[in-house]
Amino acid sequence: MHRIRQAITPALLAAVLMSAVPVRAQDARPELNAPYILTEKKVRLIGEGDNVVRSGPGNTFALVAVYSKGVEFLVIAKKDDWYNIRLSDVHTGWVHASLCKEFDDMSDLEFRPNPRLFSRVGSFSATAYTGGYAFDRKSNSFVLGGRIGYYVLEFMEVEGTVGWTHVVRPAEIVESLFDLVLEEEDFHMLYYAMNVTYKILPGRQMVPFITGGAGSSIMQGETETSFNFGAGLDFFVRKSTAVRFEFRDYQFDSGSASSRRENTNFEFTVGTTLLF
Description:
The protein has 2 domains: 40-106, Roll (SH3 type barrels), CATH 2.30.30.40; 124-275, Porin. It contains 3 helices and 15 strands. The longest helix has 11 residues, at 10-20. The chain is mostly beta strands and 276 residues long.
């Protein structure tokens, strides 16, 4: 007994106690980001004529059944070149690898595309819009227009815009340097621009964006170079149809050489966009 007590050293006792400590649940948990592995296998009989199924993994085992080419079975286990297959709810058998072909059973898998993310790269867009146009120091007016775009990248669209508005300023007294002058304005304005639009959340149902570009404004027989920038939101009611809300700031100079002034005009629009 004394010799046995001497043999149980502190190190040996610590090792025994450590081996007896149960594994904590958190240590046994699978890796959260581990890839999903499809473990269910099937075999399809490929042998010409009769394919023999036996009671064990070898030619010496008794014959269980004979099946024709093309029949499929669920794989239970595998030993060397033999597959243990399920013949029914209560019967199993073994078939040689030369008589069958193994494959993954994906019949129960269902393709569910992410409704919040799909690609629009390579799509053309056509937008018709209407809204209000606030001309600097003149009037607020109705605006009509359209846009044609192309998705170069998932997050970038190049588009061209053509718009029209009717600017009206009622007669009013304007003080000049030497006198008071009665002024009024009534003219049509056509404008066009090329823009690059950056999609902040591409591929979603609601896609906010920012945009910027350059073009021209044509009014009273003059063509003025303009620059614009703005932001908006595409709300896709269907995969290829969206409602578009947008705000833009158009900046350009106008007037004769002696009285040119800078204009900062605002445009608020809502439209319908179709992808094709």
